[in-house]
Specification:
The complex is a heterotrimer of chains A (364), B (154) and C (383). Chain A is mainly alpha-helical and 364 residues long. In chain A, 67% of the residues lie in helices and 3% in strands. Chain A has a single domain, classed as ABC transporter involved in vitamin B12 uptake, BtuC, CATH 1.10.3470. Chain B starts with a helix and ends in a 26-residue tail after the last strand. Chain B contains three helices and ten strands, in the order H-E-E-E-E-E-E-E-E-E-H-H-E. Chain C has a domain of 261 residues. In chain C, the strands form three sheets. A two-stranded parallel sheet of chain C has the order 1-2. Chain C has a two-stranded antiparallel ribbon with strand order 3-6. In chain C, strand 4 and strand 5 form a beta hairpin. Chain C is globular. Classes of the chains: A mainly alpha (364), B alpha+beta (154), C mainly alpha (383). The interface between A and C is large, with 38 and 39 residues.
């Protein structure tokens, strides 16, 4: 019974601390997550000591949280339906990029360009998600590896497409040849900071992008509500117990495709959120590795390969982005070395490794 | 553990260690700089000949006129030089061979061939070569750690 | 009745055989078509192409051959060969710093890389044993993770903690290795030792000799007890365990062998290139080697030496011919480069998908057969 509880909580490898209450807490939360949370707490405490301005750091962390949270949210549907971690997030990102570039190409500016970007990206996300979901249904069991490579192949295909598609807008194409999109496109005058500035709260150096956070909260609430509807619970059932779901009359394949479509659409919205915060559209090689930070963020938040909740998304994104923001500044001031890149690589990939090596019940 | 396995493992490690030591000695490379310069020794100065043509292992490695420096590479600690001397312009040429020993620890060695020709002891003609300044800082930026994609050299 | 069946059976089998050949070898055939299109468009002379291919064969085949062992043991495509590549790189950096030149330098680097490769392979094998059923994605992430540790060692510890003498290797700030380490002292030394020139083409005989030795080793290894054990584990882990084979240990040994061979292969690769791109040489090597192997017709659970040779020739022909061909078709030189990256990723995707689909088909067929047997038993029971 105890083992089932521990397994259900997502961390089933017993640590040496065993049967004590603290030991059970560690087991259920997972040792690596505690280490990362502790590390982040240490960084926050050290920040004023290192001379870093704490309100600015907190602002940066909250900013990065708002940019990335939706992409991490995109992981949730596919984990629920048993498709594993969505390493194929680049497909959603590509839909978002198509929406963004086409919205600018058609001449929309200001906040309207953001809305149009979402509207244009949606049909792309639906189609790509549907095809991707159909493919995943054919290869049940090997989803994660194939998702990675489907993502890569499509990004490299789009690398060719960005050069060949007939874009004409002067601020997007290369100057001297007049055809082919640039690698980075500035969003000034379009939707740069469009959500972040809504209801912005300023307290001294601390700036809270309320608009973005509200938008994320809205999407998170919609996801939570959806998961509690009949379709949502059916999707969760498909992931945790497919035979039971099939016996109950639910079409496993249809539910999986639905989850993939949802995930791809959220990925599109996610990259648009990232762009409005970052201020630039990044094409070509940028989407290649964007799935890994989102995957490790949700894992840091407590999710596993077949269990993820909204809480995981919030905690995980905050911890991950906090670490990414705080480590360079604090470390630089303390030991005059910028080890942040290396630490980020080790922590995010180590987290994914940890999740992949857990023994899970009802895995395939 | 099996006693025989321990002995075999130890034996293999010993052989490998010896092989490594042998390779490190045989393969140690040195840059040798050959000078055709005036050299002073024990109060006497020895003028340098007009031209020296130096070969090692049958191939010509340097042709140095007065006050010039040539360079060759040497693997291992012994360098055998064949020097064809032309004392004055258009004069007769004579050939001498010298064997130079380079200490293991030095990367670069300067050899004053003129001194060798004059019959001076080898230690008087050789000195370690220390590079003049720091290597030019072509990459002063910390190497980028972003994931690189299309590999051009593959 | 039976005569009719026979005749129909024969006709079906010929068409079926052709269809079977096409479906088994889709990927190589696709690549042959791509090459056939790209070569004339690229404008390269046959002599140049052949020379390039022979050089690349000598450079890469050793690395690709190291992928065969884990496939034999059922571990799938070993993305963890990157770990061996890293070990080889570190060994080369150390040997270059010690100023050991030429062939002795190469041999010394190979020997030095072995303990490091064994350690990394052991760690990789243990982690893979904890993730049975997900070996490929796990080895993929292990490669990324180890890249972080590699950077920690090479970018921060080399210099202070691991003594490096030469300022030409260390960054101006005093610690960490430069972006590019020059291997002038060892450049092409294996290639040049015994080289034969036929017309325009330079054949690095020693490299091919080494490749030949490795091929013979693999062929011999398949027949040894350990090799047979690995094949049994690759076929079915439970049956092998019942037969008394230590499954975990055999899997770890296969990964260690692959990592050590990858270390040697990387050293051969780098001596041909003539310099080490310290932070990027190893990152793409895993992906491109796996792509080349798959192009040769190998699959996730079956690969032979023939696949390796065919794959290298096809993949590298495409690699060389695509950029100029792309420039000729569209006028943009980047198109060809993006295309070859797309082709590499695409071929891995196609191979993975075909493998998973075949696995599911076999499983469902086995299920059907079992159901049929049970039905027949029941009927026999009733009668």
């Amino acid at each position: 019974m105890k083992k089932q509880l521990a397994d259900a909580a997502g961390g089933s490898a017993p640590s040496g601390l065993g049967k004590t209450r603290f030991g059970k807490l560690v087991d259920s939360f997972g040792l690596p997550r505690l280490i990362i949370a502790g590390f982040l707490l240490l960084l926050f405490i050290l920040a004023p000591v290192a001379g870093a301005d704490l309100p600015t750091q907190i602002t940066n962390t909250i900013n990065r949280f708002s940019w990335n949270a939706v992409m991490v949210l995109a992981m949730v549907p596919m984990v629920h339906s048993g498709c594993g971690l969505n390493f194929g997030l680049p497909l959603g990102i590509i839909s978002g990029l198509l929406g963004a570039t086409m919205s600018i190409e058609f001449g929309f500016t200001g906040p309207l360009s953001f809305v149009m970007a979402i509207l244009i990206a949606t049909p792309f996300a639906l189609v790509l998600g549907w095809v991707y979901g159909w493919l995943l249904n054919k290869i049940k069991g090997g989803e994660m590896m194939i998702a990675t490579y489907v993502g890569f192949s499509s990004v490299s295909l789009m690398c060719m497409m960005w050069l060949l598609l007939p874009y004409k807008a002067a601020n997007m194409v290369w100057g001297f040849s007049g055809s082919g999109l640039r690698t980075t496109i500035s969003l000034e005058g379009y939707y740069d900071q469009v959500l972040a500035r809504v209801l912005q709260i300023r307290i001294g150096n601390l700036v809270i992008p309320t608009g973005s956070l509200l938008f994320f909260a809205l999407l998170a609430f919609l996801m939570w509500a959806f998961l509690h509807t009949k379709t949502g619970t059916a999707m969760t059932a498909v992931g945790s117990n497919p035979t039971f779901a099939r016996a109950g009359g639910v079409s496993v394949d249809k539910m999986r495709i639905l989850s993939v479509v949802l995930s791809t659409w959220l990925g599109a919205i996610g990259i648009l959120m990232y762009e409005q915060g970052f201020g630039f559209i990044q094409l070509y090689n940028a989407p290649f590795f964007m799935a890994l930070p989102a995957v490790s963020a949700i894992l840091i938040g407590g999710a596993s390969v077949n269990k993820a909740s909204i809480t995981n998304v919030v905690i995980g994104t905050f911890l991950f982005q906090g670490m990414v923001t705080m480590t360079p500044t604090v470390m630089n001031s303390l030991i005059h070395t910028d080890m942040s890149e290396v630490i980020r690589i080790i922590v995010s990939n180590g987290m994914i490794l940890y999740a992949l090596t857990r023994k899970t019940e009802g895995a395939k | 553990m099996n006693k025989r396995r321990i002995i075999v493992c130890a034996g293999v490690l010993l052989v490998l260690g010896a092989l490594c030591a042998l390779l490190a000695v045989v393969g140690r490379g040195h840059s040798v700089y050959l000078d055709n310069k005036e050299i002073a020794y024990e109060g006497q100065t020895y003028a340098c000949p007009y031209k020296l043509t130096i070969s090692a292992k049958g191939k010509q490695v340097a042709k140095i006129y007065e006050d010039e420096r040539g360079e060759t590479a040497c693997m291992g600690q012994t360098l055998r030089l064949e020097v064809r001397v032309m004392q004055t312009k258009g004069g007769a040429e004579e050939t001498h061979t010298f064997t130079v020993r380079i200490p293991y620890g030095e990367d670069g060695m300067i050899v004053n061939v003129n001194g060798l020709l004059a019959g001076l002891p080898p230690e008087a003609c050789m000195e370690p070569f220390t590079p003049a300044g720091q290597q030019p800082a072509e990459d002063s930026t910390v190497p980028g750690t972003e994931e690189v994609l299309p590999a051009n050299g593959f | 009745m039976s005569k009719n069946n026979n005749r129909a059976g024969e006709k079906r089998s010929l068409g079926k055989r052709a269809g079977g050949f096409l479906s088994d070898n889709t990927v190589p055939i696709m690549f042959v078509l791509i090459c056939v299109v790209c070569i004339p468009l690229s404008g390269f002379s046959p002599g140049y192409l052949i020379n390039e291919i022979v050089t690349r064969m000598g450079r890469n085949i050793f690395l690709i051959l190291c992928l065969l062992v884990p496939i034999m043991a059922g571990m799938g495509l070993n993305f963890g060969m990157t770990l061996g590549a890293m070990a080889g790189e570190i060994a080369l950096i150390l040997v270059t710093d010690w100023q050991i030149w030429g062939i002795p330098g190469i041999i010394l680097a190979m020997i030095v890389s072995v303990p490091l490769s064994v350690l990394l392979g052991l760690m990789c094998g243990k982690i893979l044993n904890m993730a049975k059923g997900r070996e490929m994605i796990t080895s993929y992430i292990i490669a990324f993770f180890m890249n972080g540790l590699y950077q920690l060692v090479v970018l921060y510890m080399m210099g202070p903690v691991i003594p490096i003498k030469h300022s030409s290797i260390i960054l101006p700030r005093g610690y960490g290795v430069r972006n590019s380490v020059d291997l002038m002292t060892m450049r092409q030394c294996i290639d040049n030792l015994i080289a034969i020139r036929i017309g325009n083409v330079k054949i690095p005989v020693l490299s091919f000799l080494l490749i030949g030795v490795l091929c013979l080793f693999i062929l011999w290894f398949r027949k040894t007890k350990l090799g047979q054990d690995m094949r049994a584990v690759g076929q079915d882990m439970d049956v092998a365990r019942d037969a008394g084979i230590n499954v975990e240990r055999t899997r770890i040994i296969s990964i260690i062998m692959s990592t050590v061979l990858a270390g040697f292969g990387m050293i051969i690769y780098l001596q041909n290139m003539g310099n080490i791109a310290t932070y990027s040489s190893h990152t793409q090597i895993g992906m491109f080697c796996i792509a080349a192997l798959l192009v040769g017709g190998a699959s996730v659970d079956k690969a032979s030496i023939g696949n390796v040779f065919l794959g290298v020739i096809l993949f590298h022909t495409m690699f060389i011919a695509a950029p100029p061909a792309g420039a000729a078709i569209t006028g943009d030189s980047m198109i060809g480069e993006y295309f070859r990256v797309f082709a590499s990723y695409g071929v891995i995707t196609v191979a993975l998908v075909m493998y998973e689909m075949k696995k599911r088909k076999l499983k469902s067929r086995a299920g059907h057969l079992l159901a049929l047997e049970q039905k027949m038993e029941e009927e026999a029971h009733h009668e």
